[in-house]
Amino acid sequence: MDDPVTLPAEWLDQLGDAVPAYATAPRAGVHDLRGIETIAAAIGTPLMPWQRLVARVASERHPERRAEFRYKTIVLTVPRQSGKTTLMRCVLMHRALVKAQRRSFYTAQTGKDARERWRDLVDAVQASPLRSKITVRRGAGDSSLSLPNGSRIRPFAPTAESLHGYTPHDVFIDEAFAFDDAEGADLMGAIIPAQSTLADRQLWIVSTAGTAESAFLRRWVEQGRAAADDPDSSVAFFEWSMPEGMDAGEPDSWLWHPAVGQTISPQTILDAAATMSAGEYMRAYGNRWTTTRDVIFDDDLLDALSLEDQTPPPAGELSIAYEAAIDRSVGVVWACWTDPETGVPSLRTIARNPGVDWMPQTILALRDQLHPHTIGADDAGTTRAVTEGIRRLDEWAELTTLHPRDVTLAWDDMRDRIRGGGLNVADTPGWREACANAVQRPLGQGWTVDRMKSRGQVADLIAAMVALRLHEHRSADAGSPLVEFA
Ligand SMILES: Nc1ncnc2c1ncn2[C@@H]1O[C@H](COP(=O)(O)OP(=O)(O)OP(=O)(O)O)[C@@H](O)[C@H]1O
Ligand SMILES: [Mg+2]
Predict the structure, then answer these.
(1) Which of these, 353, 358, 373, 357, lies nearest to 467 by C-alpha position?
(2) Model pTM?
(3) For labeling, which of 43, 150, 236, 452 is most exposed (least CB within 10 Å)?
(4) Which residue CA neighbors atom 30 of ligand 1 most closely?
């Protein structure tokens, strides 16, 4: 992330800890903040400081052409449940009330979602003192909220054709992460020509961070980040996201969140961690981009692998692999053996502790206790130091280390088996976490798990993958493992 944002002191005071990662700063001139705040209060959601900042800047008028907004495009990215949709509702209602014949359109990830959020808007207004001012029409393809001044707010489906024949002043795209390049191009193809004849127009692109599939949003976020401190840009940009290097398990790591201390407590966010994968949690609550193309296994795949029989692997019939997390935060040892009934390889953790200093001694103890065919590890990262540590304790220790080519084959096999179900795994939080964190990188002509770029520890996944590889390629003659001396 670039330099900290430069906002006027009065705004920094209001925002407190919820400092945006990027924000187009307010500039002197005419704007609608007061009007939008009145509407927000009337519909029961007085604006939070972050919503005020966005409403203030988004409604700034062009310094020379007062009928126009200064910014033709507003790009806004904040975590889930921050109040994005609520803010848009207030701005939409304000525009409809103060401008005659205003044409405003709202869409979201699908036409159905757009209609549902539009209905929420209608419900909120009908429960407010503004109820007497609106007329609502709910038709299949023709829903609208109208005002006596001729203004209308309508939902639309995010497709190439849906704005055909309309000239919309305002277009609000909610949940913009849902669109890939082609869908984004269709949507913009529908919006841009329809809006082009209106000087008094604005487009809002709003979302929580996306995944590798969210190419449309990604481009706008990149453009927005560059625009945030460009005074001539017609794009205003706002982003609140978790800064690098924070410990997501600490309540104080969430103070940057724009709704924390307003409508959400840090504990609510911490509690949500238990309900989703680490990658999805950071996307949804941290507003951090994940690369799902690389989130290799979703939870359904992992559910299907669960090893129900918890009997320990039989001594003498297994292979063992170890891996140390690159930041030395955790070390793991996994065992692989063949299920005697099904012939399917089975994997489980046999040791897992914080730090890595404990590893050499414990691995030797496990060897003496379990008499594995093979003990080994990937010859990379912090794990290499563990291998050296074992050899310092026992210079005759028989350890098999994987060459890069073996590693790509091991990863291929692991991926195929997880996807195809040819594997039993004793499920643990560490295993789930490693699978959610894993990001791949090319190695030679193949792929492997990237220890540096993954979103957190991947030690369980790598140890399991190496154990599987060692077991699949063990010597047929038990007790005489493949031996490789350093
Ligand atoms: N200014 C506000 N005052 C009080 N409550 C608010 C305010 N803004 C939002 N909320 C409440 O916070 C919750 C989340 O708001 P909203 O649905 O607008 O968030 P969102 O960012 O669109 O969430 P999602 O990511 O789930 O779409 C709702 O219950 C909403 O009523
Ligand atoms: Mg929403």
Answers:
(1) 373
(2) 0.67
(3) 452
(4) 83
Rounded to whole angstroms, the Cα distance separating 170 from 101 reads: 12
Closest ligand to residue 54's CA: 1
362 and 308 housed in the same domain = yes
Q: What is the 3-state secondary structure (H, E, C) of 430-467?
A: HHHHHHHHCCEEEECCEEEECCCCCCCCCHHHHHHHHH
85 pocket-lining for ligand 1 (C-beta < 6 Å): yes
Q: How far is the CA of 247 from the centre of ligand 1 (A)?
A: 25
3-state secondary structure of 182: helix
Alpha-carbon distance of 376 to 164, in angstroms, equals 64
Number of domains forming the structure of the chain? 2
Distance 189 CA to ligand 1 centre (A): 30
Could you tell me the CATH number of the domain that includes residue 85? 3.40.50.300
Domain span at residue 236 reads: 9-284
Quote the mean pLDDT of the chain: 91
Residues 231 and 137 in one domain: yes
Rounded CA separation 133/481 (Å): 82
> pLDDT at residue 384 above 50?
yes
Atom of ligand 1 nearest to the CA of 120: 17
Tokens for 482? 């493949």
Q: Are residues 210 and 310 in the same domain?
A: no
The pLDDT tens digits of the residues spanning 178-232 come to 999 999 999 999 999 999 999 999 999 999 999 878 999 999 999 999 999 898 9
* CB 208, CB 77: distance < 8 Å: yes
Q: Which amino acid is at 47?
A: L
Our measurement of the distance from residue 243's CA atom to the centroid of its chain's CA atoms, rounded to an integer in Å, reads: 14
Residues 269 and 155 in one domain: yes
- Tell me which residue of 10, 12, 32 sits closest to 23, measured CA to CA: 12
The answer to whether 416 and 422 have CB atoms below 8 angstroms apart is yes
Residue 477: exposure state from Cβ atoms within 10 A (0-12, 13-18, ≥19): exposed
Tell me which residue of 399, 437, 122, 427 sits closest to 303, measured CA to CA: 427
Name the band, by pLDDT with cuts 50, 70 and 90, for residue 291: low
